[in-house]
Design brief:
The structure is a homodimer of 559-residue chains. In chain A, helix 7 packs parallel to helix 8. In chain A, strands 16, 17, 18, 19, 20, 21, 22, 23, 24 and 28 form a ten-stranded mixed beta sheet that branches. In chain A, strands 3-2-1-4-13-14-15 form a seven-stranded mixed beta sheet, with no helix packed on it. Chain A is built from 15 helices and 28 strands. Chain A has 559 residues and is of the alpha/beta class. The interface between A and B is large, with 47 and 47 residues.
């Protein structure tokens, strides 16, 4: 056999021995073909590894491309340099905005990165009585999607209660149809803080992975009950890493990114988690194994994830492996730095100009009410999580208008042209300065969310957002101080991550300038409308008590 | 949640900790549902484990049901008591006899054992110029079979040379169509004694498992090059077991049975390999893991292979675990000793009366030839393998008939009614006494094979075999001394293994009585016609040099 490329003089990672072996690696047709010492082939191109470490490309099996605010085509070029060569994406957000059509739009994009998909299992996250979305993924959509071989799993099943105790629910029926049509396909779960018999009831349904926040106890309980764990950065605490190491759980977990936004993506991706794991004391061989071999096996993508003959020639060269500093990345044997970026400019019209709500005026933000004072339900932001707490407070009524005092007004405009509903809420611990933020990147329903202390600024922000037809706008002192355009479905962009990331960074800085204090300001704002996370959230239908899945009024009582 | 069954007071094997934990196990709808200490449920049936060990049901992912000379329905009841609760069968023999129809006949049988299938990749083993078979599995048949979800792999790909170096060959095209239609499906290989660059060339094609005879060196080389190894009994030498243990290769291999005949099946199945591994020094936890968890994962059957919620409730109870003595076996929570055997009596007519060759007379066995002596090509049987060596010898010609001297005559009658060819050969080291054996269980083409020292006995044996329409007959001193009827396709029976095994044991003893000396007499005779095993074999087309894949004459030269 003749070979196309020979990578010479490398410490090649052997996933089965879990050690590095000094070898040459021959590549043919984009696959590893022959690994031995001193391979000679006259016709082959030579890459001199020069004693570098050679490891398989990283594989990220739980992530959302929309978190990068990008589309697959652009996303691909942003993560390849970080060594991520395969992802399994859950297109949950584009499905909320554009349904099956949105997923097919993602699937249609050819990228040098290999992107496989999970079927979003909770679109909408709740139900049409609680939130208006652009699309619904029901049984028929799931059936159709299961015919596509790039679908490799059912995406994170969230609705624990429906799955376990309501056999007629949509979630339960989606699981049923997956088992019928593709009984070997992995079913991914989302089960934070569920343990004991409840956890086992969830697993009983056939769900066998979780990627949510873990502790020592949850890792131990979930893995010993047969779950495959997908460890994301927020779970990388010393006790979790110790649990994985002490119990030799290396075969039963992998690292995943879940959500990495455009601004952060400019500095790293899954590689950062591998570096962190090594820094936290995990042997580098095992950290690499769990970012390459175990994720591939979990998703039945055994055509990759190791440097052995027959597997796809995705690999990384590194000199400083202890700090996991990536020098070169190769996708199917091709140096990714030589790839010509082909921007997806042909965005179908149906995914553009998708914000179908009225232009706001100042009256839209005033809550008209008769009386002296009103007892209001308030969403209080927590600075380190996407949770809110539910509080109540008496507010004054002045000239028939509710005085929000030091609180922040939040208004949702239904934007799919279905009901044109407008809903109001009040937020504590959000922006402190005078100003406003408008966003159509608002999980999961992605209606138009406007947050502000100044009504005029809110009008300016909302109007600008409609002009942009998607994205995030920050207004202070009646001036637009930052914006990030997300022109596709109002949630993603076809611009390069470099440019997009810079805009997003500006937006983030501007939000901070308004006095918003949070570990992740943008995610915090976006999840004020996420109806599956505690405790009080908001949609176009109004305030929702998320545990009870019940709409409540902003004003509880008037005196 | 309420449960159907609670197994109490067991040392339950946890596949993830690789240790036993004292617990109760609740079962619902045939699946494990809840594992905890002291589970109470009023309505549940209680099984008191009484401090027994509880392990998952055994999973055998490389085996041929036809080796048991049985059909799936009967086979199922014979292996369940030995703890085998799932198999992946390669229906290679029934496909040789009856093509895709034969495979569909196997697939159509409902059994309490879960049987998944591989697509036989080499039917015929060589090509129609070298052997006549009843069926061919070509591209169209593979395409059709890939639509069935019970097909979980491509069965052992044997033709190393075609796969690696002939992209237009049937083998190469079968692999191609599998990758196109089911890119995640495992491709199983058969590559004895192939190593170095050739082995890697084979793996390059996407084949990633081997179940043939291994040594320390082959295990190390194959696993570190990414192969999953399926260890059968003949590979269970101390050096192989040591290699697996020393290198901590437990995640990359499993135990398989490959071929277990009806007589042997009465005494055990995959359980014997687990017992042997423990006896040879493998920790019992790891031996169990590699007969349950790793085979399930290899075949993407992650709905079984561990005692955790959501997996199928197949399990075994044992008191004496060090000797691996099985006390009770449960399939989907049901004690297999309580299963009512439903014999498959409705065998479609097309699979009966399938021996379409002429009734032999004594002239059929005489080789007529002019001259004084003839240089003949002879197949010499090796007593410890299925190989023959190719020898040559001068034999006398008496009255125009070749005198076979102390050699044994072998005659093949084409039996599919296609050519009605008759081919002759001579065998050394076969039966020593006067007598004959006739068999239609003759790998892989399963034409009628008659072996004998006495022509009259050969006639009696052949005629009796036609009367039986399949099986094996042994004749001595003009009397039938043993027979085993295989009435379906001439290779399998619907009788119970108990009865079938007794007949086969009698046949085996009768063959020994004729002076046949071999580790496995029946397999030795049957593989005299196996054209993919060294060195000189025979089909209805004549003698075949198997390495060269070339027909040669019995008589090389006459003087």
């Amino acid at each position: 056999m003749t070979y196309d490329i020979i990578v010479k003089n490398c410490w090649v990672f052997n996933s089965f021995l879990k050690k590095f072996v000094f070898n040459d690696v021959a590549i043919k047709d984009g696959k590893f073909a022959y690994i031995a010492s001193n391979i000679d082939s006259e016709s082959a191109k030579i890459i001199d590894g020069n004693n570098a470490y050679m490891i398989p490309g990283l594989i990220d099996i739980h992530m959302h491309i929309e978190s990068s605010m990008s589309i697959p085509n652009c996303f691909a070029y942003s993560v390849l340099p970080w060594g991520t060569t395969t992802v399994v994406a859950d297109p949950h957000e584009i499905a909320n905005v554009a349904g099956k059509e949105g997923i097919l739009f993602f699937l249609s994009q050819k990228t040098p990165l290999d992107i496989y998909y999970g079927i979003p299992s909770s679109v909408p996250a709740t139900n049409p009585d609680l939130e208006t979305t652009g699309g619904i993924i029901g049984i028929d959509e799931v059936k159709d999607l299961l015919d596509d071989p790039r679908i490799v799993c059912l995406g994170e099943v969230m609705n624990f209660h429906d799955v376990c105790y309501k056999p007629d629910s949509l979630s339960a029926n989606i699981i049923k149809i997956c088992k019928e049509k593709r009984f070997q396909m992995p079913l991914e779960g989302h089960c934070p803080k569920i343990d004991g018999e409840k956890l086992q009831n969830f697993l009983f349904q056939g769900i066998s992975a979780d990627h949510t926040h873990q502790t020592y106890k949850s890792v131990y309980e979930k893995i010993t009950n047969g779950m495959f764990l997908e460890i994301q950065r927020k779970s990388m605490t010393q006790d979790v890493i110790d649990c994985l190491m002490e119990n030799n759980f290396y075969e039963y977990f992998c690292f995943v990114t879940d959500d990495v936004m455009a601004d952060k993506l400019r500095y790293g991706h899954l590689n950062e988690l591998v570096a962190l794991a090594i820094k936290m004391g995990m042997p580098k061989e095992m950290a690499i194994y769990c970012a390459t071999f175990t994720p591939a096996r979990r998703m039945h993508l055994e055509d990759r994830g190791a440097i052995v003959p027959g597997r796809i020639a995705d690999f990384i060269l590194l000199k400083d492996i202890d700090n996991f500093k990536i020098d070169k990345v190769y996708k199917r044997g091709i140096d990714v730095s030589t790839l010509n970026y082909e921007q997806a400019i042909n965005i179908p019209n149906k995914f553009l100009n998708t914000l179908h709500c009225k232009k706001a005026n100042i009256e839209d933000f005033k809550i008209k009410i008769e009386g002296n004072k009103a007892l209001c339900n308030i969403m209080a932001i927590e600075p380190h999580s996407t949770f809110t707490t539910h509080q109540q407070r008496w507010l004054n009524i002045k000239d028939g208008i509710l005085d929000k005092d030091d609180l922040v007004m939040i208004t949702i405009f239904e934007r799919y042209g279905k009901s044109n509903d407008i809903a109001h809420g009040l937020v504590a611990n959000a922006i402190k300065e005078s100003g406003a933020i408008a966003s159509s990147w608002a999980h999961d329903h992605h209606n138009v969310l406007v947050l502000g202390t100044d009504y005029e600024d809110m009008v300016i922000a909302q109007n600008e957002l409609l002009k942009m037809q998607g994205g995030i706008v920050v207004v202070k002192d009646h001036k637009i101080i930052a914006k990030c355009i997300l022109e596709i479905g109002g949630i993603v962009s076809s611009r390069l991550i470099e440019e997009l990331g810079k805009d997003l960074e500006n937006v983030r800085e501007a939000i901070k300038e308004l006095g918003y204090e949070h570990d992740n300001e943008i995610m915090s704002i976006a999840t004020l409308s996420l109806l599956v996370s505690p405790a009080l959230k908001i949609s176009d239908k109004g305030l929702v008590l998320t545990k009870e899945q019940k709409i409540i009024n902003l004003v509880e009582e008037v005196r």
